[in-house]
Specification:
By secondary structure, the protein is α/β, with parallel strands linked by helices. Helix content is 31%, strand content 24%. Strand 8, helix 6 and strand 9 form a beta-alpha-beta unit. Bound molecules: NADPH dihydro-nicotinamide-adenine-dinucleotide phosphate. The site of NADPH dihydro-nicotinamide-adenine-dinucleotide phosphate has 23 residues, from helix 6 and strand 17.
Length: 451
């Protein structure tokens, strides 16, 4: 049977665009559908604008530090509208580049919502097209819990488009997005209260990273309240009011929920074609990203494996090579490095100490906590931490965790070493770059014996 396309991709985010581009370069006739803006969460309302906001907010501290380095810094102020305008210009530019990538690679773009009708048929806008393979790469969307008055709260989607910079902000959640935005609003001068329902933010991270980030963001002025559960949100004459389950009341100009994301599967027509999902909507896939329907695949956040852009890109490439390149490849989800752009940021790769103990029993820990050199002649009190987790039998470094300036940049290189299975002996044989924060990674010799 002849189809209109070899591949129809639903969702033009990082995973979908990469899969379509590579598939096309391997000879497939490809179309892609996008109902919002080409580029996806990361480019349009995620990693990219977030990082620009992080840069913007960090200047506050840089100005303070500058004085002790001899600079006379005149009174500073921040213009939110300029930041939003410049950020929008950059996002428009990237959106244009993504359009170009698709057209340069002969991928036909449908700027409409798509729905799967049967195994090979897709309705896209007012058209019906057929394809041999379908790839679902529709990403995720913020979860807003069912709290009375939640309609007054925003998610990260809206935080990128606020008309005014809020002066009093409540951030609900303790994950990546909550920690990053609490830091952004704090740096830009807002009074920030972060509410987390558990004991310690950044669940899933190494316990020393969790403690260090909680300590450092608190020192920088974020009022971090744990075991704090919102009961209701109300609009008042002066803004918003959030009442917690313990009866305490907080006034705010903006309340941002960063309480996780769920896979975007609504209205895709998955049931009709036998694509199974988990309880949270995540599409069930095998190691080749194939769903429970033979010719339908899924990559990226919609599969809820590791919700990171570079992972979606790798999954998309592995899909293309498997289906159109004649080289079946399962993407290996182990040892994926990642960063949290909190202030200070976190870089992590491999296992946490708890995971390593669970897996190997005994592990050796090397940990160094210190005042970074830049802070020595400023008034800043930020501290940094580097931690290595070593499996003693093989001497392999199975986890590296960094809190401190440029941790995200540093962990990228360390990620290669960990992925290659480097041993502690090899780390030790590597000469440090002096004076840097990163040299601690190769200079620690004493085992850490504390908790
Ligand atoms: P996370 O899953 O990281 O965090 C969600 C947070 O919200 C947790 O602290 C969770 O608490 C809390 N929470 C969940 N439900 C509720 C509720 N009903 N009431 C109160 N609190 C609640 O999600 P994010 O939204 O922060 O980020 C989504 C994903 O996006 C991340 O997992 C990450 O993969 C990706 N991301 C990556 C970034 C990066 O690489 N720098 C940046 C931003 C996002 P608990 O811990 O108790 O479950």
């Amino acid at each position: 049977m002849a189809f209109d396309y070899d591949l129809f991709v639903i969702g033009a985010g990082s995973g979908g665009v990469r899969a379509s581009r590579i598939s096309s370069s391997l000879g497939a006739k490809v179309a892609i559908a996008e109902e919002y803006r080409v580029g996806g969460t990361c480019v349009i309302r995620g990693c990219v604008p977030k990082k620009l906001f992080v840069y913007a907010s960090h200047f506050a501290e840089d100005f303070e530090d500058a004085a002790n380095y001899g600079w006379t810094v005149p009174e500073t102020s921040h213009d939110w509208k300029t930041l939003i305008r410049n950020k929008d210009t950059e996002i428009d530019r990237l959106n244009g580049i993504y359009h170009q990538i698709l057209s340069n690679n002969n991928v036909e773009l449908y700027e409409s919502r798509a729905e799967i009708i049967d195994q090979n048929t897709i309705r896209v806008g007012d058209k019906t097209v057929t394809a041999k393979y379908i790839l679902i790469a529709t990403g995720g969307t913020p979860v807003m819990p069912d709290v009375p008055g939640i309609e007054h709260a925003i998610s990260s989607n809206e935080a990128f488009h606020l008309e005014e910079m809020p002066k009093r902000v409540v951030v609900v959640g303790g994950g990546y997005i909550a920690v990053e935005f609490a830091g952004i609003f704090n740096g830009l001068g807002a009074d920030v209260i972060q509410l987390y329902r558990g004991e310690q933010i950044l669940r899933g991270f190494d316990h020393h990273v969790q403690a260090m980030v909680a300590q450092e963001i608190t020192k920088k002025g974020i009022d971090l309240r744990t075991r704090a559960n919102p009961a209701k949100i109300e609009k008042t004459d002066t803004g918003l009011q959030i009442t917690l389950e313990d009866g305490s009341v907080i006034e705010a100009d903006a309340i941002m929920y960063a309480t996780g994301r769920r896979p975007n599967v609504d209205g895709l027509g998955l049931e009709a074609v036998g694509v199974e999902t988990q309880g949270n909507g995540a599409i069930v896939v095998d190691e080749y990203s194939k769903t429970t329907a033979d010719n339908i695949y899924a990559v990226g956040d919609v599969t809820d494996r590791i919700a990171l852009t570079p992972v979606a890109i790798h999954e998309g490439m592995a899909f293309a090579e498997t289906v159109f390149g004649g080289k079946p490849r399962a993407f290996d989800h182990s040892d994926v490095p990642s960063a949290v752009f909190s202030q200070p940021p976190v870089g992590s790769v491999g296992l946490t100490e708890a995971e390593a103990r669970e897996k190997f029993g005994e592990v050796d820990i090397y940990k160094s906590e210190f005042r970074p050199m830049k802070q020595t002649i400023t008034l800043g009190s930020e501290r940094a931490m580097v931690k290595l987790i070593v499996e003693p039998k093989s001497d392999r470094v199975v986890g590296v965790h960094i809190v401190g300036a440029d941790a995200g940049e540093i962990i990228q290189g360390i990620g290669i070493a960990v992925k290659c299975g480097a041993t502690k002996e090899q780390f030790d044989a590597t000469v440090g770059v002096h004076p840097t924060l990163a040299e601690e990674i190769v200079t620690m010799r004493e085992k850490y014996t504390g908790d």
